[in-house]
Amino acid sequence: MNSLFKNLLALLALLVAFNVHAAADLEVNTPGVNAIKNSMQTRHGQLSAYYASGAVGLTMDGMIAVRDAGSVPLAARQTVNALVAAENQDRSALYAEIANANGHPEWQAEIRTTFAQRWVQRAQRGWWVLSNDGWSQK
Amino acid sequence: MRYLTHIRNLLSALLLLSTAAGAAEFALSVADVNAPAFKAQGIRLVLPADGSADLQIANLKLQQHEFRNLRVRCGGFTLSSAQMSCRNGRLDAIPDAKLDFSYDFSGQRWQLALVAASGESWQVDGQPDKRGWQVSAQLRNAQGKRLSPLLPAGMPLPAQGALNGNVRARGDASGVQAVDADLQLAEIGFSDASGLHAAEKLRGDIKFTANRKGVAWDWQGSVVWQSGEMFWQPLYLSGDNHALSASGRYDGKSFEIEQAVLDLPEVGRMQFSATLQQGRLLQGVLRGDKLTLTKLFENYARPFLAKGALAEAALYGRADVEIQYRNDAVQALRLGLHDVGIADVSQRFALLGVNSEINWRLDAPTTARIDFAGGALLGVPLQAGQWTVNMKGLDFAVPQAELAILDGKLDLHNLHIYQQADAWRWEFAGSLLPISMEQFSEAAGLPKMLGTLAGRIPRVNYDGSEINVDGALLFNVFDGTVVATHLKLANAFGRSPQLSGDLALRNLDLDLLTRTFSFGNMQGRLDGDVNNLQLQDWQPSRFDARLYSSAGNYPRKISQRAVQNISALGGAGAAAAIQRSYLRFFENFGYERIGWSCVLRNGVCAMGGIEGANSGTYAIIKGGGIPAISVMGYNRNVSWRELLTRLKRVTQNNVKPIIK
Fold first, then answer.
1. pTM to 2 decimals?
2. What residues does each domain of chain A span?
3. CA triple B152-B158-B159, angle to 5 deg
4. Does ipTM top 0.90?
C-alpha cells in the first residue's frame, strides 16, 4: 500500500514537472526578451568563427565556455573571454526573463535545461560540446 | 665535490680490475648517490671494450624535479687518474643534442657542454675558488623549451625561442652566495595550459645580480622588453621598449623593492617602491608625472572593467599620480589632472578639459576644486563649470553645483556619492532652469519642439541597483506640466533596465504639440494620465493611459489633416467613416471634446474613446461648433507595435489627406 502511494506520488510529481514544461512559453515576446535576443544575435556574428575553430564551445548547462584559448591569436584572447562572459550574462538574463514573462520565476532552471538542449541541437556540425565526459565534437 | 672523488676511486678500481682481467666489457652498479643538490638511484655504468660508455640512472632527483630512466651513451669515454671525460655523448632525453662532459680530478674542475643544431650550445663550467666554488654557464642560441622539464608545472612553460648570454653563480658549503645573469631573449614564446598567460616572439634583455649578506639577499635587476606580444589575462601588451629597473632586498620573509623605475611607452615613467610578504602587498608608493592617460587607460585599466559605460569610454589628457598604500588600503591619492577628458564611445556622455589638483586621504577630510571646459550628455552640450567636492574617505559630497546646459542650467543640491556595504550609492536633488525646447530638441536629435523645458527634481537616489525618485518630478513642457511620480528604475546599469512610474499631463498646448510632431494642426488643451507605466529596456510593456480635453474655455479646432491622421491610426476601415464629400471644403473643424484611452497588456493596446463604452464603436473626437466633425474608433484591440508603425507613418511621411 505504502509503495503504491509512493508510486502515485512519483507519478504526480512527474505530471507536475511535465505540466510546467508544457506550459512555459519559450517564445514569449517582451521588450526585455527582445533586447537580450537582439544583443545575442549581434554577438553571434563575432562568436560563430570561434565556435567553428573550436576556441569556444557549448556547455550542457545552457552556457558557453572557452575551450581552447591557445587557438586564438594573443591579441584576440581577451576579446574572446569578454564575448563569452557577455554571452553567458545574456543567456542567464534570457532564462530569467522568459521565466518572469511566464509569471513563474521558479521555472528558470527548467527553461535553462530546455534551452541547453535546443542550443546543442541547433549547433553546427563540428562545434564542440562540453558534457560530463568532457569536450566532444558534434 | 666529495661524491665525485668517491666515484673516481670506484672507477679507478674498476679500471684496474678490467686491465688485470683483460675482459671485453665491464659493468658497475651503484645503489645510490646522495649529494646536497641531487640524489641518484639505480646507477649502472657499462664500459664496453671499444672505449665507449653507457650510463643509466633509474631515478634522478634534482632539487624538486624527478627524472626517471636517464641514459647517457658516451661515444668516447676515457678515465685516467687525472681526468674522466665523456665525448660525443647522447642523452636519451635530449636525442638531438651532443653531450660532452669532463672532470679534472686534481683541479676539481668540471665542464659540461650540450651542443645541437643551429649553433645551439649550453656550456657549463664548475671549479673551486678561494671561498668555495663557482659555476658559470654560457648560452648560445639555447632553446628555451629545454628548460620546461625543470620548471614547476602550472607555470607558463617556454615552447619557442632561444636564450643567449651568461649566468654565473658563486657559493660555499652553506649554499649559493651570489648570482649574476645577463641574458638576451630571442623570439621566446611561452604559454600555460589554459592559454591565459602566454607570449610570442619576445625579444629583450634581462640583467640580474644578487648577493647574499647573512640571511638576506641584496638584488638588482633590469628588464628591457623590445618586441613581441604577451597576453596575461586580461592584459594584452606588445613590447615596445618597455623597461623596468629595480633594486631591493629579500630576507627570506619579506621581499622589498626599494626603488623601481618603470617606463611604459606612450604612457610615461613611473617610480615605485613596495614591500611584499608571501605575495601580499604590505605597503607601497607609486608616483608618475605627466602620464598620458589615453594608453594608460586603454592598455592597463579598460581590460579589467566589465562591460559598462566606463569600459566603453576613452580618456584623454595627462595626469600626475601619487598613490600610497598601507594596511590593506590606499591611504592617500594625489591626482593632478591636466586637460583631462572622458568620452563614452557611443556618445552618451563626455566631460572635457578637466583640470584639478586632488589630494585625497583615507583618514582626513579634504576639498578639491574641479574645473571643466565643457561636455555633453545624451547629445546635449554642457557648458564650462567648476565644482567643489568635499571628500572624506569614500564619501564625496558636492553641496551645490551648477551644470550649464544650452541656455539654461541644472542646479544640483546635495550631490552625495558614497560607498556602503560594498556598493556605490548616490543621491541628489535639483532643479532645471528653463532650457529652450527648440535648442534642446535639436541637440537631442528629437523633432523640433517649441516652448521651454524646466522642472523640479526632488531627491533622486541610487542604492546600488535601483534608482528611486522621491516625490514628484515636474517638467514644464508645451506650455503645460508633466508630473512624474513613483518613478523607479530597476536594474539601472544592467541588461534591460526597467522603469516604472505614473505620469500626469496637464494643460498641454495641442497647437505646440501637433506642430512639433507634424501631425496636422490641432488647437486646444490636453490632459492625460499614464498610470502603472512600465518600460522594459525603454520600451513600454504595460500602462493604463487616458488622454482627454482639459477643462476650461479655449479655442477648439482641428485641421483636416489631423482628422485624417487620427482616423488613419484607427486603421484603413476607420478612415472611411468620416470621409464625407462636403468635408473637402473646410480646412478646420470645431470639436467639443477629445478622449482616447489605451490599456497596454502583452503588446496589445485595448482602446477606448470619450465614453467608457465596453464594446463597439467609440468616439475619439466629439464634434461641436460649425463645421463640426466627430471621429469614431472601430477597432478596440490593436497591436502596440502596429499602432507605433502607423503613428510613425503619419508623422514622418506627412501624408496628404485624401478627402472624397
1. 0.79
2. 2-137
3. 130
4. no
